[in-house]
Amino acid sequence: MPTGPVHLYVPGPTNVPDAVRRAMNVPQQDHRAPDFPDLTLPLFADLKKVFANETGRVFMYPSSGTGAWEAAISNTLNRGDRVLMSRFGQFSHLWADMAQRLGLDVICVDREWGEGVPLADYARHLSEDPTIRGVFACHNETATGVTSDIAGVRQVMDDAGSDALLYVDAVSSLASIPFEQEAWGVDLAVTGSQKGLMMPAGMSMLGVSAKALEAHKSSRMERCYFSFEDMLKTNDAGYFPYTPSTPMLHGLRASLDLLFAEGLPQVFARHHRLAEGVRRGVDALGLPLCALEPKWYSDTVTAIRTPESVDAAEVCRIGYYRYRTSFGAGLSKVAGKVFRIGHLGDLNEVMCLAALASAEMSLADAGAKVELGAGVAAAQNYYRTALETSTDVPGRATTSPQ
Ligand SMILES: *Cc1c(COP(=O)(O)O)cnc(C)c1O
């Protein structure tokens, strides 16, 4: 049995940078102390920058992302409200399931797993049915590696003259790929701490538009722990209606500092580069992606279809036990057919090469006919070129080595 670190390539939880881990190692403190807002008020302000939310606000909840899904719904809708959703992967499925269980009247458009938000269907439903109160979209379907066009959703809503609220799951996209809450007219944007924000699971953040805050006032769905009302009474002064996890708040500070030091545009560019290298590697191995069209390729997670005769769950098991690598398993409908390489958060090119190398060995051991090194080489070639043009090497000779 090999020893040493386990390499984490699940698309959440992601690697926690040392700076974030150390920042969380703090003594407990009084969350009602007079200087506590010195920590919290800048967090609210900086999270708004990450959501690109200027005129609304951001709430922080002590829950995983699923809690903020519920907060978004229960604070802004009424039982029986008609909402438009789509389902093409495990996460879009789960949010639709929650909406049904909370008593919404859900129009759910089912698409093949590997497709994204169906804009034409949304356009049709919205033009036919002016009673739709909420439109839901999963920005990045983590189960299939599919990113959807949220600006496009806003466009079809506007074209249909819909005044519904727009709810977006940005859990595996925010702080990794471009997200523009204000520009895209997203009313409720959900995220969690353990993906692009590089923290442990246990905190969710909800970006809320001014329009959604208004809708909150007339929404009558039962809510208590997640109520905006209680948050609004305390947040502006820098406090919470209940005991926050202070180590998580310090971790968030460190995470935001890292993101801003790198620069959000640079963070997005890095994720695109890492993903592109992984995709080229997978392509060189002759394996198809779960995502069915390039316009849907996700820059945070790549879901790979294994050949018919190869059990993708076996690839994950071999990767874990033999090569100390955690890949994302295929979930639900694509269990056994798909495995996933998460490439979001705190990672770089060489780590993606390691993921490909480990995937090649695991695939070969599970019976797939792959040429060892082919995927790694394709990614290496891409990374070399991409970094050669974007990175200065201080002190190098004037002639560049080839
Ligand atoms: C991880 C994730 C969630 C939230 O899951 P939690 O386990 O509750 O944090 C929701 N949606 C997507 C797309 C995700 O990737």
Strand and helix layout:
Layout: E1 7-9, H1 18-24, H2 37-51, E2 57-61, H3 65-74, E3 82-87, H4 90-101, E4 105-110, H5 119-128, E5 132-138, E6 140-141, E7 146-147, H6 150-159, E8 165-169, E9 188-192, E10 204-208, H7 210-218, H8 228-235, H9 246-262, H10 264-284, E11 301-305, H11 312-323, E12 325-329, E13 338-342, H12 349-365, H13 374-390
Parallel strand pairs: 1-12, 3-4, 3-5, 5-8, 8-9
Antiparallel strand pairs: 2-10, 6-7, 9-10, 11-13, 12-13
Helix pairs in contact: 1-9, 2-9, 5-6, 9-10, 10-12, 10-13, 11-12, 12-13
The structure holds pyridoxal-5'-phosphate.
Residues 12, 64-66, 91, 138, 140, 142, 169, 171-172, 192, 201 line the site of pyridoxal-5'-phosphate.
